[in-house]
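pinned: reference chain
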Amino acid sequence: MSAGDLIQSMPTPSQPSGGGDGAADAKQGMLSDIVQQLRDDFRERDALYSGIDTILFQENEVAIPDNYRKTALEVKSPLAPHIANTVTAALSTNPPNVQFDPTGFGDPAQANSTLREKFFEAAWRRQEEEAQRSIFRPFMHALITKGEGIIKTVERSKKAWSKYNKDQAKLREILEEDEALSAEDKDKLYDKQTEDWKKSLPYPIASTDVPPDTFYYVKNEDGLTFACEVKTVPFFETLERFQASVDGKGNIIAPSDYRATGLPRHEWATAFGSTVPGRSQWQGRGRVKPLTMVEAWDANEVTYILYGPGQVTRGGKRLGRGTVVKSFKHRYGDRVTGALRGPYFHAQGITTHSRLPEHCGLGILFGFLELFPMLDSLLTIQANAAFLYGFPAFKETQPQGPTLQGPFGNDEAEGETGRTRIEPGTLYPRDIAPVDMPRSGQDLEKTIQFIRGFIEMALPNVVSGTVNAEQSGWAITQASQLARLGWQPIIDNAQFALSRRVGFESWLIEKRVREPVSVWGETPANYSTSRARQGWLTVAPDDLNGVHRYRVVLQPETPADRIQQIRTHKELLSLRLEAWNDAVTQLGGNPDEVEAAWLLYDMKNDPVIKAELKKRTFQELGIMDEESLNNANAEARAAQPSASGGPPRPPGPMPPPQMGGGSAPGGQPGQQPGMPPNAVAITPGLPGGGAPMVPPPRNAQPMTGPGMPGPTAPPR
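pinned: its structure tokens
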């Protein structure tokens, strides 16, 4: 039985089953036991994450002998944070690209696909703007360094649109009382006003990243069945949010618990030890004790449990009996499988065959964790040797032969100390030579190079921007691509989790928000008649229609990779091994937008269109006389291709059309030169061999002109 099934077997606090408060206490105890069991199961993972944070933020201590602590310089290598930041920047330099395959054939399905892609890309930017920080980069940083990343997405329409819900009810009452308006006019005014209100309000869906070391879960073949966060939160804001209180012993009191009496608000701080001690033993001598919150999600319900200082053991290693301050049904679970659709979207780093939490997903620093402290120790030894023995010492050399010395050698002549102060540039009667100071030895240099060679495997030089001048450009590109293949599992897992998140956001709009939602972003080419590239994008539940299968693509490539991809698709298209739409999609574009843009470009650059635009421009400006008008008409006729597909007609007056069908010499009427018998004449279209935009009339006759065959009599 899974953790979710165990929770569902217990009655909820809001619906006790005949036992009064005993049922709520039993549910609360069951949740606390499950959370504590998960913390015990994930203890090795938490210890691994703590060690990674220690190295990333350079909080590790370097072992230095006691005799050298006064003079030793503690040196720490910046390689660990440099590797993490470089790889994170490489994989998160471009924002996620949303792709949606059309659900049908034709322009409406393609337009719906483009609208969805543009909308959810703009919606992600909107959520990051409202969070006032980047969400994608912390998610990728945790995924790269610790091998685990989580994004949380929840619906908040009741909170974000609380004012809208009140105003739209008043608006409906006002419109119903107005008898001068028809029902159609009332609906138009209502839709217009409510949409304007919603555009000015926050986005009804919010996302955030979850630190991996606070996330615990139960997963089976169908996905997540139970997930929870165990996190430290500020006590004052949290108690205000849940309308809870705290007593003098440091226990949290639920808002519905009428049996206990809490402290006044101005005395809450005394229970958490943030004032001078002397009131109770839980104050901790002036140190603020944290407030721990557990947010537990199963397939049907979410429960918030608070643990005060009196409900947590020393050190916070074990949780006691917390206080349930809020619990409600969320309807995010799948009724068939019992798994969670959301709100958590869990991605692992370099996946392995292990099912242990500390080994199933690894970060890029996992195999090098022991090398960074060792490198810090060696660099400290090297720096200490350079500090102690970097300044030279001198000695006097004794001259050869007998010398006059006192009973104690030369010490009497030099004074009580027996030392001579050396000043550069001074001549001395005796020879002075430097003393050969101790050195750290060759083994230290070799060991440092040896360790750095291992660490370089995590971030090769070609990836970090350091290359050898003797290498060719192609060799550098290939080496960079092969080095980054080790990051491909991380990219794939991140894309899968982000794709599920976008699908869940789409499901929330259709099933939970149930109203059109608008965001400001880049509009598709065929979205409106406006030429502006930015505008409001609106998605309604009818546009989603129960299909929520999206694909998010990360593009961490360099310009060299981009050129290589373009060349690959060019070869595939030339050999007809790939469709044009597929090539545009894989390169990150929208086929309908690209096609519309090129169609507009070709039409603008067509000679006929250019001549017509020039003619109308002169007419509007009033600077065209009869001679200029004739010249413009001649240029327009010269730009048109001949009916036989030959070169354009020379400038000159257009001959009147001839009645009857023309024919090639020795051919049938209406047949073009060089065409086989019984072939149908095709009217030339736009330059480039395209079909005509408008087909010619059925009874249209071929034109005659210079270089064209004249009319012939119809065959008898």
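why pinned: The chain has a mean pLDDT of 76. DSSP finds 23 helices and 18 strands in the chain.
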